[in-house]
Design a protein that fits this description.
elongated; 8 strands; 1 helix; mainly beta
Length: about 100
């Protein structure tokens, strides 16, 4: 027999890739807000992180829009996430040329 202590959950190691369209993004931070553990993508945009159902992942990079993903049963079954980030667009309000 196997008993789990209250609050202990089955965590699964999943892998994934962060891209912009089809281009891998390096050094993106993936933080599991529930476990407070994180990962950073490699030069191929790949990462690994431990999760359980309904964990909230925060994906962030200074050049891209942040993204929040809530882990679901499909993610746990495939053990894979592909995350597409959108580039931030910085616009100036006005330019003065003299």
């Amino acid at each position: 027999m196997c008993f789990l202590a209250q609050g202990q959950e089955n965590r699964i190691l999943i892998s994934g890739r962060v891209i912009n369209d089809t281009i891998p993004i390096e050094n993106v931070h993936i933080i599991n807000k529930n476990s407070q553990k994180g990962s950073v993508t490699n030069h191929l945009g790949q990462f690994k992180i431990t999760v359980t159902d309904k964990d909230t992942l925060m994906i962030s990079d200074i050049q891209y829009e942040n993204k929040i993903i809530v882990v679901n049963q499909d993610h746990l079954l495939t053990k894979y996430l592909e995350i597409n980030l959108l580039e931030l667009t910085n616009e100036l309000d006005e330019v003065l040329v003299q």
